[in-house]
Structures are given as C-alpha cells and as structure tokens.
C-alpha cells in the first residue's frame, strides 16, 4: 500500500523536484499539488492524503494559516513543513501550530522520507539541531517575558531613564532632590529586579524589554 502525499508549495519547480525525489520509492505516491494554503485545504477535502508537505510563505494563504485550519478540520492528517526559511521563530510557530516535522529544502532525501514515515506514524521528528534551536528560542522568550513583567517604582523609573541619558548618581540626586546614597540604593534595587550588575546592562535590558525607550 502506497502512502498518499499532497505537496503544497508556490514554486512549480520545487513541486516537480519533490515529486521526482519522493516517487523514487514505491512506498509513496503524489496525489496532488497546491500552490497556496487555500487550494491545499480544498484538495485535502477531496483527496484525503496520508501526509502533507507544506511550504510556509505562499500567496493567498500562508503555510502557517493553512496548518492552523487543517489541524481544526482534518487533525488526523499529519503535516511536515518543508521550507527555505531557517528562522527560530518560524520553527517554533510551525510546531506549535501542529506540524509533525520541520525540514529545510536542502535536506537529504533519506531525511525527507524518514520524516514523512514518522509523520504517518503520528510521531514528531525534528533534527537535533532544530530541536535545540527551538528550545533555545523558547528559553530566550521566557527570559524576555519575565523581564518585561519587572515592576519598577516611579522613582526607580526616573533614575533608570536618567542613567540611560548618561547622568551620574550625583547629577540624578541633584536633579530629583534626594541624597546620592538614596540614588545608589535605588540603583541596587533596579539591578536586582532586572537581574543585572551594572548601569550599562540595566539600560540594555530595560530597552530590550520595552521598559524604557530612548
């Protein structure tokens, strides 16, 4: 019994190339091709393929949009992303949307077929380097989210903004009418909340987290 595959990609040459590569094995047959996500959704209803190979950036409807819709309407059909876009955020979004694999178009035939087989078995197969990158990206997001939730007092915000402008502790104390030691105490509190050890780090983290804007 041959596994039925639907190829979704807006480039004809890519679809033709994939068809030639995949059908070198008698285990698979290409039952349909689509040039965008909207056409793919229509074809899935008619063809009911065993697995879908999905590009991401396409006109009319993107791959991510199509995956989201297909996971709702045909959750039993596995989807493997096959794209040229080597971006951590896209990888994470694709897997979170429900894809069973994420492959780059320069992947080898053996890896492609192995990913298709895994998807048909209901497994999610990711190359080790892609798994690592997704985990690193998630960790980075969590850190950024935690920093964005930092609550600084109005006085601490005033001091942090002054630091960002290059003011010294003495200048800040004079400008806002408090003792210099109080400024230094507030700085210690700011460092602890932001998880940093210096003025420079405090400013960089605050800008990256959207706490202050230059």
Shape: elongated
Indicate the mean pLDDT.
Answer: 88
Low-confidence regions: none
Strand order of the largest sheet: 2-1-3-4-5
Largest sheet: 5 strands, parallel
Oligomer: single chain
Structural class: alpha/beta
Strand content: 5-15%
Q: What is the H/E string?
A: EHEHEHEHEHHHHHH
Q: Output the number of helix runs.
A: 10
Q: Strand tally, please?
A: 5
Query: Distance between the terminal alpha carbons, to the nearest Å?
Result: 63 Å
Which radius of gyration do the C-alpha atoms yield? Answer: 25 Å
Query: What fraction, in percent, of the residue positions are helical?
Result: 55-70%
Short description:
The chain has 214 residues and is of the alpha/beta class.
Describe it for me?
- The chain is 56% helix and 12% strand.
- The protein is an alpha/beta fold.
- The mean pLDDT is 88.
- The radius of gyration is 25 Å and the shape is elongated.
- The protein has ten helices and five strands; from the N terminus they run βαβαβαβαβαααααα.
- It starts with a strand and ends in a 6-residue tail after the last helix.
Secondary-structure map:
Elements: E1 3-8, H1 12-22, E2 28-34, H2 37-47, E3 51-54, H3 63-73, E4 79-83, H4 88-97, E5 101-104, H5 109-120, H6 128-148, H7 154-164, H8 169-176, H9 180-194, H10 199-208
Parallel strand pairs: 1-2, 1-3, 3-4, 4-5
Identify the notable features of this structure and list them briefly.
214 residues; alpha/beta; 5-stranded parallel beta sheet; 5 strands
């Amino acid at each position: 019994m041959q596994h039925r595959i639907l190829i979704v990609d807006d480039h004809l040459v890519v679809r033709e190339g994939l068809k030639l590569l995949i059908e070198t094995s008698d285990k698979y047959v290409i039952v349909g091709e689509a040039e965008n996500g909207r056409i793919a959704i229509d074809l899935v209803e008619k063809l009911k393929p065993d697995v879908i190979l999905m590009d991401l950036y396409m006109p009319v409807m993107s791959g991510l949009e199509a995956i989201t819709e297909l996971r709702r309407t045909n959750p039993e059909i596995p989807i493997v992303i096959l794209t040229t876009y080597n971006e951590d955020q896209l990888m994470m979004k694709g897997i979170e949307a429900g894809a069973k694999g994420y492959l780059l178009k320069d992947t080898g035939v053996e890896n492609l077929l192995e990913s298709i087989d895994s998807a048909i078995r209901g497994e999610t197969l990711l190359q080790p380097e892609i798994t690592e990158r997704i985990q690193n990206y998630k960790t980075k997001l969590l850190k950024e989210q935690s920093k964005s939730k930092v609550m600084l007092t109005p006085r601490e915000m005033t001091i942090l903004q002054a630091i960002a402008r290059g003011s010294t502790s003495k200048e800040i104390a004079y400008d806002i009418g408090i003792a210099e030691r109080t400024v230094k105490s507030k700085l210690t509190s700011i460092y602890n909340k932001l998880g940093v050890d210096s003025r420079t780090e405090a400013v960089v983290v605050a800008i990256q987290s959207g706490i202050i804007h230059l």
